[in-house]
Amino acid sequence: MSVTPGTPTGSSVALATITALAVAGVILFVAVLPAEYGIDPLGTGRALGLVRPQPASVEEPPAANGGDTNIHVDVAEIEIAPYDYVEYKYRLAQTATMLYAWEATLPVIADFHGAPDGASTGNEVSIERQTKRRASGTLTAAFSGMHGWYWENPGNTPIRVKLTTAGFYTSAVEYRSNRTRQVHEVRKP
Amino acid sequence: MRRRLSILITAGVLLALGGYAGAHDRYRVIGPVIEMDQKNSVLKVKTNEKGYPPIVEIDITAKTKIERDGKPIARAALKRGLHVVVDALGDDVFGLEAVTVRIVPAPK
C-alpha cells in the first residue's frame, strides 16, 4: 500500500483523536465543570476565579403562622353542668402558634391536647392533664389538627370557664358530651 | 392453596368486623336512676340533656365498672333515685353499653 504525502495515516488520526479527547477532558475538569456546575475536583476553578462563592445555606425558621397570614382572636364563656365535660378546640396548621388564658369558677379536670388531622378518637396527643382553675401560655402546634382543652366538672355545682385566645388558627369548635358540636366564629383583632 | 386462601379471607372478615365493632362513640349520661332492670341488665336514667331521649336505657354488662367514691360496688346497689354518671359506648344513644357507672351526690 502506498502512502500519498500529506494524507494522514490511520495511526496519526487515532493519535489526534486521543489528544483531542485528552485536551477536552482537561478543559472539562479545569474550566467547564467548575464554571458551569460548581464542581471543582482539581481546585482549578477556585484558582482561576471560575467558581462563585456559594451563599451560606440558611435554614428558614418555621413560620409562626403555619403558612396562614391571618391572626384571629376568640373569647368564649363556657358553662359546664355538674359531672359533665366540654371540649373546645382550634384548628392550627403545623408550627402555627396561639396565645391562651383560661379561668374557671371552680377547679376543673383539664386536659390540654391535640388531635392530628385524620386521627381516630382516642389518638389525641395530651400536652398536660391536671385539676386546676386557670392556665395560660403559648402553644406551637406540633402537627396540623385540632388543638385545645377538655374540661370536666368533677363536682355537683355548675362551673363557668372563660377562655381568651389569639393566634394563627382558622376555626374554633365546641364539643359536648351529648355528641353535639358547635362551630364558633373567630374574629380578626 | 384453597385452605390458605380461606384462612386469609376469614382473617380479613374478622379484622373488618373487629374494626367496626370497636368504632363506637363515647357518650356520657348524667341523671337520676329511674330503674335498674336486674333481669335484663338494663339501667334506665332520666336526663334533661339536649339530644337525648327523656329516659336513656343503657345495657350493663359483666365488664361494666360500678363505683361510688372511687370504690367498686355491686350492681345491686343501683337503686331508683340515686344520681349516676354513666360513660357508655354505642353507635347512637339508643344502643348504649355502660363502661362505667359512678354514683355521685345529686347536683345542687
Termini separation of chain B comes to: 68 Å
What count of helical segments of chain A does DSSP give? Answer: 2
Number of E-state strands of chain B: 7
Q: Mean pLDDT score of chain A, rounded?
A: 84
Give helix and strand order of chain B, one letter per element, not per position. Answer: HEEEEEEE
Sheet/helix structural class of chain B:
alpha+beta
Widest sheet: strand ordering of chain B: 1-2-3-7-6
Percentage of residues in helical conformation of chain A: 10-25%
Global outline of chain B: globular
Mean residue pLDDT of chain B: 85
Task: Give the N-to-C terminal Cα separation of chain A.
Answer: 97 Å
Strand content of chain B: 35-45%
Q: Major sheet of chain B, described briefly? A: 5 strands, mixed, barrel
The structure class of chain A reads: alpha+beta
CA-based gyration radius of chain B: 18 Å
Taking the sheet with the most strands of chain A, its summary is: 8 strands, antiparallel
Summarize the largest interface: chains and residue counts.
A-B, 14 and 17 residues
Outline type of chain A:
rod-shaped
Given as residue ranges, the uncertain stretches of chain B (5+ residues, pLDDT < 50) are 13-21
What this model shows, in words?
The complex is a heterodimer of chains A (189) and B (108). With 189 residues, chain A is α+β, with helices and mostly antiparallel strands. Helices cover 17% and strands 43% of the residues of chain A. In chain A, strands 1, 2, 3, 4, 5, 6, 7 and 8 form an 8-stranded antiparallel sheet that branches. The longest helix of chain A has 28 residues, at 10-37. Chain A is rod-shaped. Mean pLDDT of chain A is 84; it is low at 53-58. The longest helix of chain B has 20 residues, at 2-21. Chain B has a 5-stranded mixed β-barrel. Chain B has one helix at residues 2-21; strands spanning 25-37, 42-46, 55-59, 65-68, 71-72, 83-90, 96-104. Chain B is globular and about 65 Å long. Chain B is α+β, with helices and mostly antiparallel strands. Classes of the chains: A alpha+beta (189), B alpha+beta (108). Chains A and B meet through loops of A and strand 1 of B.
